[in-house]
Amino acid sequence: MTNNVIIVYLITNVFSTYTIYRFMAIFFDCRETDRRVESISYIMYFFVNSLLFIAFNNMALNVASNLVMFFLLTYNYEATFRTRLIASVSIYTILMIIETLVVLIMGYFDITVMSMDRDLPVISGMISIKILSYTVMLFLSNFKMVKNNINVSYLHWLSIFVIPAGTLVSALMLITEVHSENIAGMIVSIVILFVINVFVFYFYDALMRSYDEKMEKVLLQQQNSAYLKQLEVINQSQENLRVLRHDIKNHVMSLKSLMEREDCEGMSDYLATLSDYINYSGEYSKTGNAEIDSIINYKMDKAKLYGIKTEINLSIPEKLNIRPFDLSVVFGNLLDNAIEGASRSKTEKMVKVSAELENNVLYINIANTYDGNLNYKNGRLETSSEDKQRHGLGLVSVKKSLENYNGTMSIRHSKGMFYVDVLIYNSAGVQR
Question: To 5 degrees, how large is the angle CA 377–CA 413–CA 324?
Answer without folding.
Answer: 90
